[in-house]
Amino acid sequence: MEKFVTITSNITPLAIEDIDTDQIIPARFLKATTREGFGDNLFRDWRYDEQNNPKKDFVLNNSDYAGAKILVAGKNFGCGSSREHAAWAITDAGFKVVVSSFFADIFKNNALNNGLLPVQVSQQFLNTVFEKVQADKNLKLNVDLEKQKIEIVGHNVSESFEINDYKKTCLINGYDDIDYLLSIKDKIEAYEKGSKYLSLISK
Amino acid sequence: MAAKTLFDKVWDAHVVTEIKGGPSVLYIDKHLVHEVTSPQAFSGLEKRGISLFRLQNTLATADHNVPTKDQHLPIKEALSRQQVEKLTENCNKFGVTLYGLGHPYQGIVHVIGPELGVTLPGMTMVCGDSHTSTHGAFGSIAFGIGTSEVEQVMATQCLMQSKPKTMKIEINGKLGKGVVSKDIILYIISKISAAGGTGYFVEFAGSAIRSLSMEARMTICNMSIEMGARGGMIAPDETTFEYIKGREFAPKGAKFEEAVAYWKTLFSDEDAKFDQVLTYKAEDIEPMITYGTNPGMGIKVSGHIPAETEIDAASRLSFKKSLEYMDFQPGASLIGKQVNYVFIGSCTNSRIEDLRLVAEFVKGKKKASNINAYVIPGSKQVEKQAIAEGIDKVLAEAGFELREPGCSACLGMNEDKVPKGEYCVSTSNRNFEGRQGPGARTLLVSPLTAAAVAVSGKIVDVRDFNLN
Ligand code: SF4
Asked: Residue B107 pairs with which residues in a beta bridge?
């Protein structure tokens, strides 16, 4: 996994609540057997019409926001299906951070497992970002994982965010969970010897 | 000893070790695998040059992509076929038990686990699929995971998990006529919203829950993810033990007795503390339907879509966008609205009791001429049982066709899709934009209401029919 460093970037604002993973990547695009290439179909049905022409009014097709590494979305982002393809699609499209006032649990885990940082902010902070980006399309956010701080650049508005120490260390160093779990195999085997369930189903 | 919730008891029994300031390492007793969320995990193992840590704890099936007609023929759609073939190839290579197409145990992953006696009280269970919460109906901790986590479980039989908060939802009293378990869960989600359970593991309790069959309980736990909860669970009782007894992979004889003795200890202690407790009356619940694009947007079938003023200012934009997609007006009633598609199936409502309920209702009636209906059994076993009971014939006489098992139009990965702009009354669990096909408009209901809509050709209150 790529190491996470501090990021300053313009944003892609998506002021819609309850964005589910079916919108992020529709089921018909889940047939690939690799992790790459999902970015082209990110928000497919919001982004393209039936003839595959880009819809002008959708934010990802608006060149004012091009090159953004930070996606900012309404509350309850990533609800619904557990498909990790949603996190793959977002990272494949070049995003490193998703900001929302609330994340669905599975999405949050999937994002963290792919070096995509979910930053949960207050509803007020989120509203401020949506307001300010209307006046200044080039509005930038700075996300500092080390300090756990997110800031609206040049506006002196900032907030701290939560992340558990373990996940933070993983992101900063580019470690993944499997490396850790594989290193404690002896503990796992010791657990199995005393497992109630395993003893019940053994013949 | 401190009082514990059911969730705490099962969780604590599975903690291998804890990381300071971080998650716990949780042992996973059973890992279910399907074709969509596993290929990248298998290739991850390959890249690391490792195999599955515990093959015997792993079980695979093909369900999301499979056609529901002519399953004996090769899958027509190339990408779907490749994904299903990839699963077979991976299972063969790694030695994973696969109930693939053509196998008598094949079916939707959350239907086959319970019916084969794989799902048992007190176990931990995961699958790369959010509706893994279904299995919580047995008093197990069961939840959906992403593909990186699928790889973790394959590699180590463990997951790194932070302990969620606990919520108890109690429903007491007696359900009214025409009200079934699907209505209970749609009612709860409409009350607490599609995000109301996020961060929680939910225990469903109360006399109304106790009186439900196992299959009805599964419908409730299945949709706990639709309120954002990681999972739902119900304490095992005689109904549970009775259901498990004699099933293919369930413990037998003395082992079964030993298991039951243990399972009887799995309940929330009287003074156990939950982070949140909600209580509802069964008598307040009526047949439900959703009008919007998330499962929290539900109303009584006899009710009205909320007016804009009833919606939080911050959520109004999303509310309007949703009604625009559905082509509904705020404040409107849905009764009498023409619907051309009905889908009866999915891991929420495709079990034998669901099919019995539908068959009993449509017996002697006819499907309305405008209705296109899909009736999709949850598994080969359900299909077999339905045929043995003559349900296929009853359905055929009423103008329905019982097809072959799979996820089907629940998510439209195979060719079963609802056309753009059409309304589909569906027994599945998600009414997201485009879920049943690009531009399709989904209204979630119980199997009973779906059957009533199918014979009426429009939205009706099932209680207007003569119900026994
Ligand atoms: S039936 Fe639908 S919800 Fe259930 S596992 Fe299949 S796709 Fe997912």
From this structure: B379
Query: In the structure encoding, which two tokens stand for residue B374, read together?
Result: 């899909």
pTM for this predicted structure: 0.95
Q: Which residues pair with B113 in a beta bridge?
A: none
Q: What is the DSSP annotation of B309-337? A: GGS-GGGHHHHHHHHHHHT--TT-B-TT-
CA distance to partner chain A, nearest, from residue B40 (Å): 6
Tokens of residue B176, six digits: 């009214």
Question: In whole angstroms, how far apart are CA B60 and each of B28, B33, B225?
Answer: 15, 4, 22
What tens digit of pLDDT does each residue of B56-100 get?
A: 999 999 999 999 999 999 999 999 999 999 999 999 999 999 999
Give A51-65 pLDDT, tens digit per residue: 999 999 999 999 999
Distance B132 CA to ligand 1 centre (A): 9
Q: Which of A29, A79, A175, A180 to mutate to test the interface with B (most CBs of B within 10 A)?
A: A79
Alpha-carbon gap, residue B435 to B415, rounded angstroms: 13
- Cβ-count burial A120-146 (b if 16+ within 10 Å, e if not): bbeeebbebbbebbeeeeebbbbbbbe
C-beta separation of B128 from B150 below 8 A: yes
Q: Could you say which residues from 98 to 137 on chain A have a Cβ atom under 8 Å away from some Cβ of chain B?
A: 102-106, 109-110, 113-114, 123, 127
State in Å, rounded, how far the first CA of chain A is from the last one. Answer: 41
Q: Are strands B165-172 and B276-281 parallel, antiparallel or unpaired?
A: parallel
Locate tokens 């239907």: which residue? Answer: B111
Terminal Cα-to-Cα distance of chain B (whole angstroms): 49
